[in-house]
Fold:
Amino acid sequence: MTDTAAQEQRLAKAWARPKGWAYFSDVNNSVIGIWYISAAFAFMLFGGVLALIIRTQLAVPNNNLVSAETYNQLFTLHGTVMMFLFAVPIFEAVAILILPAMLGARDLPFPRLSAFGFWCFLIGGVFVCGSIFFNAAPDAGWFMYPPLSTEQGGIGADIWLLGLSFIEVASIAAAVELIVGVLKCRAPGMHINLTPAYGWYVLVVGAMILFAFPPLIAGDFLFEMERAFDWPFFDVTRGGDPLLWQHLFWIFGHPEVYIIFLPSIALLAMIIPTFAQRPLAGYSWIVLSAIGTGFLSFGLWVHHMFTTGLPSISLGFFSAASEAVAIPTGIQLFVFIATVMLGNVVRTVPMLYCLGALATFIVGGLTGVMLAVAPFDFQAHDSYFVVAHLHYTLIGGMLFPVIAGVQYYYPFATGKLLSRKLGIWSFWLSFIGFNVTFLPMHLTGLLGMPRRIFTYGALRQWGDLNLLSTVGAFIFAAGFLLFVWDCVRPKSSEPNAPRNVWKAGTLEWAGKVPADDWGLRSIPQIDSRYPIWDDKTLLATIDEGKGLLADAKEGRRETLVTSVLDAEPTQVLRVGTPTWLPMLAAIGLGGAFIFPVWKLWWPTLGSALFFLAVVLCWLWTGTAEIPEKQTKDIGDGRRVPLYVAGPQSTGWWAMFITMTGDLTAFLAVLFGYFFFWTIHPDFPPIGIDGPGWQWPMVAAGLAVVTWMATLGARLTNAAGQVTLSRGLLVTGIIAAALTGVALMAGPWTTGLDPTAHSYPAIVWGLVVWIVLHLMAGMIMQAYALARSIFGKLTPRHDADLWNVTLYWHFTGVCALLTALVIGGFPLLQ
Amino acid sequence: MSAKPAHNELERETGYGTDLWRVIAAPVVWALHFLFCYVYGAVYCAKAGRDAPLDQPTIVVIVASLVALALIGLSTLQIWRVRARSLTDNDFEFEHNTPEERHRFLSHVALMLCVLSAVAVIYVTIPMLYLSTCR
Amino acid sequence: MRRARLNIAGRSARLASATLPAIVLAACSPEQSALHPAGVDATELANLFWFMTIGGAVVWCVIMGAAIYAVVGKRRPRSERFADRFVFFGGVAFPTIGLAALLVFGLALLPDWRGTDAPDLRVSVVAEQFWWRLAYEGEDGVRIATANEVHLPVGATVEFALTSTDVIHSFWIPALGGKMDAIPGRTNLLRLTPTKQGIYRGVCAEFCGTSHALMAFPVMVHEAADFATWLAAQRQPATASGADAFVAAGCGACHVVRGVSEAGSVGPDLTHFASRRSIGAGTLELTRANLDDWLIAPTHIKPGVRMPSFATLPDAERTAIVDFLLELK
Structure:
């Protein structure tokens, strides 16, 4: 047996897919990616069926196909499913599938986390969708405005709140995974200026998720406290305010639109250069545009609230930012057109969809510019004009690009080509059907048809336009089904697509057809943006195993970690192998989110403990493993470490990113506190005393003790004083427990009743939030202590302690802030 | 920028010219400016009542905009200096695989973001020229 | 100065609006249309709409023209510099200037709308699931309660003070101007100035529950004198006779008929019920047959409505109630 054949065999063994039922325990990105995409499209089809029922109901005036109650569930679920179960997850799904190959990594840094995210998404999605078959679906709109959603009986709103919070966990998990992937897992030599445009978009979108989703999670937390325990955050009779929810929802909701749009546009940034047969003309413009859009998109949320009676000064600011965001958004479209102008176009189905996406999205963009002018929005808001606008942006900015992406990457994922003929048919049906559906809606809206009405009278004369829209919807559906059929029809008799079928230049096309489980045979040195075009020997280098990491000597799954800016190899990361743990963890967490819907507190607690046990087992057996040797030869005479800790490790980055998101959520809850201050002339309200300043100050002191003890534990451990370090960890655990007690003692001893008024409710809300974090922190400290005692954490191998300390940097600051605000702010009044 | 021997990867990378934090400095200034203007305006109007005049907020917002523009200008100036040193050949493709090129690229993006952020700050100031009360 | 600019744009927009969409619009009911303006604000916004639409259409054609040309056009070697300039002028310079102009132009409308000078008429609106509780402020400051039908004098600036007692609603009369939400715990102000006499229609625009679709109201714009007559009539107590059946059936537990029963005010004030055009907040036309149906099966006509069914009432008694109600001119 030759040397390279033996290497290949070892690689194959290390990366082999589990067989039989164990298939579902797989964690490799190429498998998870396919599951994820399939599930997202399945939910999309479900949402599409809901849309067709909606359109049929509206086809003629005074129709009674469905009742008002059913209709309200239908449109609520349609919006919810399309947004939370298709638009956002499809980004995560596609990125998980293609990003590692694009960057030349064998897998993402945390494959088990991807699997966990997928199972969370699937369980949560089935739960939310299934509700409609029990006539229990949420029916207050996908935006769940209180008081409508708080007053409603039934479990619909709880299903929405808890089910989606659960799914948001998957989004945060994906954000962590993808940010670290782009920053730390690029092939050697792939400097940040050589990273594929897609990578930049993923980075920006990942960061946006960290600032956009947490406010919604915080909002869900407050909302569920109101529904389950009657804490009056949104109840005006007890000092609450429904607008608080609107702020939290749209601080999430508007960036979310760009979280959906940017990664889809990113697909165009990969497709267009390939079919123009030249590099993107204006790579820097694209990066500028991605970053600029990412920032500006956080200054738009109030444009969903233009008619809520906010002062015109607020409308003005948000109107201005909403116009400004059109500039970076538009730039990328011009870059695409310029690329095509400079290149030699190959006319393919993906390009057809790109053009269709452009034509559609620009309409949505222009109506967006119109709606951003606040006075015009007073007319168009909540009318069918907005329905038309948002579908033009989402279908032109997301669906068509994603279909272009599926058409383009289908051979990459499956080795087979899609039919050109079916593709052209499905495009024209979809494109024409879409425009017949939604173009008339602009007019319907301005003729006075409001959104979310289950029927309308014949006197309004909207019948013809609505009938036209309904006919269009069915044409659109036919086109889409044709595309789905093309994807799922059996193709085993067809020949495989040739390697790099589109003659693309980027690294994901360097793989063989059919693809090997291990990805590339060896990881090449990269020195251009389009390595396949620029380096004619690249494929040979890869295939002959002359790149890095061409072997799996120890039989482990390994991928390279490189530095952030210049992609110098810094570590060989041993990534997770197939296991049931992520699925079990998702089931446990799912139980903890789903049982509260029926207020089954014991099963909830049981599920949460099960989740905790599984996660601890997962971490204990699968992370921060002390390697058998310090460094490893990766080929080309280079040796890099197998174990790193602190800011150089992927785990530290993951913790940093997660905690950034967590901090955002905390700030959103804190925003609630100050929001109530702005709306009440007296805050704290007269007659409600508490929580006093004494106990919060004690808590603040103890929080600092905990924080410093944890930091001290890391420093002393690193200095070799293991016993002292363990002692400090024990001190930390005790101090953390006392912090929690002291924090609760304030509102408790002063008799703050959280159901009485929004002020005690928000104080308790902050306290509960911190106490939960203290508990998590104590578990982490205990975990680090146990790792130290069992010899899995040593002065040299201290990654766990680095990560726990980082957690406490964040939690320490949050606890301190909370204590200072609830104790100190009332003194200022 | 720095010729010190690098102790670890992070220091070596961040020590050399423009890093990712420098790139987002200008948009962060925009974000802070926007947040300040909005929060200030909203709190002012919430506390002063519907018919309160906007004389004071107008001045505050304009001053805040000038400060923001100055900060963005400062950032621009810094980057411009590095850029002028390294971007002599008007090659805007930045596709070579060297740390210097990466640095030139990030400087260029940072510079463009400065311009965008400045435009956005000015946009956000425009409404103040019209409004006279909190209504 | 600002006004002058606006009018120039407005005139060109009106010219366009007269020809292009006339065919489509002619076929539509103008009662509830933002494109058939009958108020100062609606007119400005319709002009703004046509102006932006035409501008947008031009922009769309130019960009798509460039894109299609790029795909099918003849190949000419072009430099990277060309691409850079194309992106700069098309994607940066033009939008920056264009959007700034639009912002300046569009926001100029805001202050006019939200004036602080005293309005000619004040109307308080309390939105409830799924109807409108209205109160006009008479000249001597007296409140004149009515429901589900808005009457306005032409040419007068009316200030609506909007709030809600249950969930969030939104008050929208497309023909007169923009909408404003009615939010529990807050009072929002909306100013409208009708310019044309006629009958229009307003609706609830914010999703408010089961029968959100059936929460509307007719809007009558009268000559000032006619309006004054109407208001004076509304101020009077009811004069109808034969209230016995109404009282006996317990209608008074929810409805006020001033002069007859003023105990409960859960539902709409019915003092001058017969002077209105509709039943159930714009749901049915007011006719004897519809009224009878409404008393028999209100939740069938309007799901989720709180009005109970009076189907079990003997026909004679229900007819007596209908007679009484139809007399409440």
Remarks:
- Chain C touches chain A through 88 residues (CB under 8 Å).
- The domain at 121-235 of chain C is CATH 2.60.40.420 (Immunoglobulin-like).
- Residues 40-72 of chain C form the longest helix (33 residues).
- The radius of gyration of chain C is 26 Å.
